[in-house]
Amino acid sequence: MKRKICIITGTRAEYGLLYWLMKEIQSDTEIDLQVIVTGMHLSPEFGLTWKQIENEGFSIHKKVEMLLSSDTPVGIAKSMGIAMIGFADAFKELRPDIIVVLGDRFEIFSAASAAMVAKIPIAHINGGESTEGAIDEAIRHSITKMSHLHFTATEEYSNRVIQLGEAQERIFNFGGLGVDYIKRSKLLSRDEFEKSIKFNLNKKNLLITFHPVTLESDTSGEQFHNLSDALDELKDTHLIFTKPNADTYSRVIIEMIDEYVKKHSEKAIAFISLGQIRYLSALQYVDAVVGNSSSGLAEAPTFKIGTINIGDRQKGRMKAASIIDCEPTRISICYALQKLYSEEFQNRLRTVENPYGNGGASSKIKNVLKTFPLDSILKKHFYDFDFGKKYEN
């Protein structure tokens, strides 16, 4: 029988990273692709992006409803519990040979937990990374310990997975999937991009992607207010906002973005989801990504543009020379914007290299998923990197 490889996706950004891997599996006649969607994909508030997945040629085998109408810690925890129940039923029906999860969100933690109990092997993409300001940090490392195959984006991240006791022969450093998407996709021309968003670019342009710092309490509103005050000081600059994911305290940011765009409609526009093609096309024409999204670190350097990384959400990730770190205060953000447009910094951008590689990860991951022996994969030995010994869990 063909090996059934089940991809699980809960957000628009995550699906964009998984797209070419899904295409690789789908086009291989010797394996079967299963797709489970959950989380934001099923929410009208976040654009019902499951429809995009189907429109791009994928069959959705199961939809796991989970999101409650609350972004409080209690609401998120309850959503995780609902998700585990849904994934348990989905895995019982689909019986995948291996599931593939990416990253560090709470939806993915629920999927991995249910798969672990069901004795289904787990392949984890983007383990070993660090985001000290978000609960994603603990979730990511927990998923690593539940997983059996690991696909990392850099050597440093591979070493962190080894630190967590995972065996080296199960860790594969193939680079970032975001870079792969950039290299393999036909992006929009400037004119096509402007028409697609119904908004004209200006002399200067910024892409704003700001999310809650989930290990902080009630800081989202104040930090976004500081950001908007700094943006108000810019001249001849148009702003494209993408709204945050379904995280704790995200709704206050969404409301503030809507209010800002309504007040500054001549220079600002906002989207629930640009989609991967429009988002990456935007990176061709903006001067920088501003906010605290991982895309500013993982994808933006490929376009040789700047990233203003605000606060602690991405603290601990590897960073190219194009990243400007700043505090979530108006003054610090203003200084970062001044540095961005300085002649010295603009000259530096010409030689920037992306630490997340040059593409090719999707096909390499597919080949491992297709051929790696699964018969005895569930039993793992703890790899002690200090002494070179293995201890059975």
What does this structure look like?
- The structure is a single chain.
- This protein has 393 residues and is an alpha/beta fold.
- Helices cover 41% and strands 18% of the residues.
- Helix 10 links the parallel strand 9 (237-242) and strand 10.
- Helix 1 (12-27) crosses helix 15 (361-371) and helix 4 packs parallel to helix 5 (136-146).
- The mean pLDDT is 91.
Please work out how many helical segments DSSP would assign: 15
Assigned CATH class of the largest domain = Alpha Beta
User: What characteristic shape results from the CA principal axes?
Assistant: globular
- SSE order: EHEHEHEHEHEHEHHEHEHEHEHEEHHHEE
Strand content: 15-25%
Q: Which sheet architecture does the biggest sheet show? A: 7 strands, parallel
Multimeric state: single chain
- Residue windows where pLDDT falls under 50 for at least 5 positions: none
Average pLDDT, all residues: 91
CATH superfamily of the largest domain: Glycogen Phosphorylase B
Question: What portion of residues is helical?
Answer: 40-55%
The total tally of domains equals 2
Please name the CATH architecture of the largest domain: 3-Layer(aba) Sandwich
Radius of gyration: 21 Å
Strands ordered across the widest β-sheet: 3-2-1-4-5-6-7
N-to-C terminal Cα separation, in Å?
31 Å
Number of strands: 15
CATH topology grouping of the largest domain: Rossmann fold
- Helix/sheet category: alpha/beta
